[in-house]
Amino acid sequence: MQYRHYNTLNALLLLSLCFLAPVWSSNSQSAVQNGGGSAHTNNWAVLVCASRYWFNYRHMANALGMYRTVKRLGIPDSNIILMLADDAACNSRNRYPGCVFANQGRHLDLYGDNIEVDYRGYEVTVENFLRVLTGRMDPSVPRSKRLLTDDRSNIFVYMTGHGGNEFLKFQDNEEISAFDIADAFEQMWQKKRYNEIFFMIDTCQANTMYSKFYSPNVLATGSSQIHENSYSYENDNDIGVAVIDSYTHYVLEFMEGINKTSQTTMQDLFNSYDVDKIRSHPGVRMDLFHRDIRHALVTDFFGGVAQVEVLPQLSTEEPIWSHNASMASPVVPAIDLFPLTKGNITEEVQDVELTGDKTAVPHPFALELMAAVQNSTSQRETNYRTVRAWASAALLVALVGWVCSRGK
Predict the structure, then answer these.
(1) Is 290 a catalytic residue?
(2) Residue 351 phi/psi, 5° resolution?
(3) From 162, 290, 323, 363, the catalytic residue
(4) By residue range, what is the domain housing residue 4?
(5) Which residues form the signal peptide (predicted)?
(6) Catalytic: 162?
(7) 377 neighbors 386 (Cβ within 8 angstroms)
(8) Which of 202, 224, 239, 352 is least enclosed, having the fewest CB within 10 Å?
(9) Same-domain check for residues 28 and 99
């Protein structure tokens, strides 16, 4: 009799596990994303050379070296914001016009013929930098100059130039403080403009620039501690100036051994710092970062992403929007409750040619309604999984109690 009850109990346990398996599977996938791996779906880079003039040639080489590295590892130009004085390649004192080199042998031209400078010359200002980060742009600014990130974006922010205790000079004309960058990152977090940020800066007293950060999911590193200079790596006698900074040189040297599929971690990068070679004390701040840097890959910030997010399919009895084969955005169907006429066309669609086919005209209301339906669908699925988990647990407890009572 007891043997029969044990068989019944085992059968009930297996039945309950069938109910709970989908919920546990979903939760375990979320745990993997939030723990060991990153949950981001796109990578961006903001590279800033805050200096100008010929004698700051090395700062331009620093930024271009980082630009070459992130492009090589898969971040496209469309996802890179490059801010550069851009006054060295074609300077009259440059013996190699149109070229920028970062070593004495001049084996690699960092400028080349395939770079896209988004902000050049006097466009490299504190105001423009902060506007790029926070997204507070004038409508006239083209998409190529915007940081079009979201809450699934990992952003690599690199800055180089002349600095001091909690400030960095821009164009020898103005300064940005550690408080300014910290507040900009907080605005980005509040506006859901990033998933994680990796901040790197090469300047004198660089580590003071991330001392005021307070926003979550930010990992930061710098080339030198307070009251300490950041030194150049080497001079080129033909060019006549220093061609790269020491800290950036060794970071780029380490990155040369990384490819798009590398499993090298951020901990490996930080372990590569050699104070004797760099001649300053690089720092790392990781208290705001939610992941173990031993599991955070270098390519989570320097590389492209092949990961995509699949949204739930919308299912309504009477769909109020559809996809036109020739368009990527939702459009209003022919049966339109809000017909577009000359009198109520918004600014976003004024340049669309009006034809007899209304499906060719996107409508803002359709976009908002689509987003609302998506959010509602996602919320219903979450609620369903929660209710199912609790119901399964209650059923399991009830069945175990019943079997135990029968056994007595």
Answers:
(1) no
(2) -90, 5
(3) 162
(4) 1-40+311-408
(5) 1-25
(6) yes
(7) no
(8) 352
(9) no
